[in-house]
Design a protein that fits this description.
Distance between the termini: 20 Å
Order of helices and strands: HEEHHHHH
Largest sheet: 2 strands, antiparallel
Strand content: under 5%
Number of helices: 6
Amino acid sequence: MNEKYEIKRTQLLTLIALTTAVITTTTMIVKIPVPLYGYMNLGDAMIMLSVILLPVRGALFAAGVGSAIADIFLGYPQYALFTLFIKAFEVVIILLLKRFLTTKKYAVPFFAAGLAMALSYGIVDAVIYQSLEAGIASLTMNIPQGLISAGLATVLYPKFSKLIGHIRSLDS
C-alpha cells in the first residue's frame, strides 16, 4: 500500500478514536442524574454531529462504543449493550434522512434521531422491568434529552458543517 493511503487511514482511525472519546466524555461530564432511570446527558448532540464528521462505519462505531463505554464507567453496565445499538440506530436514522441536511429543514434528521432514541429506551426499560409504566417513565425522561440534544445539534450544525468543509478543503 502506498504511503499516502497509510497516512489517510491513520488520520481517519485517529479521528474515529477522538470522536469516540468526545462522545464518551460528553455523555459522562454533562449528565443530570434521574432517580431509578439513570441520567440525562448531551452525548446525543455529539453523536448527531459525528455523522457529518465521519464515514458511516466510523460514526456507527463512535456513537455506539462511546456511549456504551460511558454507561459502563457511570455504573449502568446493564444498559451498555442496548446503548451500543440504540446510539448506532440514531446514526442510521440521521443517514436515512441525510437529504434534509442540505436544505433548510436540516433539523429533521436530528429530531427524528432524538425521538427514536427516546422510544428505543422506553421499549428497553419496559422489557427490562417488565412494566409498561417503566417504559413510559423512561420515555418521558428520554424525550427531553433527545429534543435538547437535537436542538443543540441543530444550532451547531451550520457552523460545524462549515468548519468541516473548510478543514477538508485544506486537505486537497
